[in-house]
Amino acid sequence: MLPSEDLTDQSDTDTDPEDAGVERERKRAEAGDEDLALRVVGLSQQHASRMADRLALEDLNLAVTKGEVVGVVGANGAGKSTLFKLLVGDGSPPSSGKRLGP
Description:
The chain is an alpha+beta fold. 24% of the residues lie in helices and 24% in strands.
C-alpha cells in the first residue's frame, strides 16, 4: 500500500476500511504491473505438530515496490518468522501460493 492511499475512500459503504485496503492490496499483488521488488500472491503455510496441524499463514497477498519500506508486525506465533523464511527460501516449501518474487 502506498502512503498516499486513503483507506477511508470506499465505493461500498458496508465495507470496513481495513477490508477495503486488504482488497486493494490483493488486486495490486495479483496485477503485478508496477515496478515491484516483491510480489506474493495466495501464500499459505501449514505446520505439523504432535497435537495438530496449525495454519501459520493463510492466503497472504503482498506487493512491495522498489524503494518502499514495509514493516511486519504481529503477536508471537502470528507467522512473521515463517513469512521471512519462505521469502528467502529457508525451510519447507509453502503449502500453497503462486509466484514469490517480482
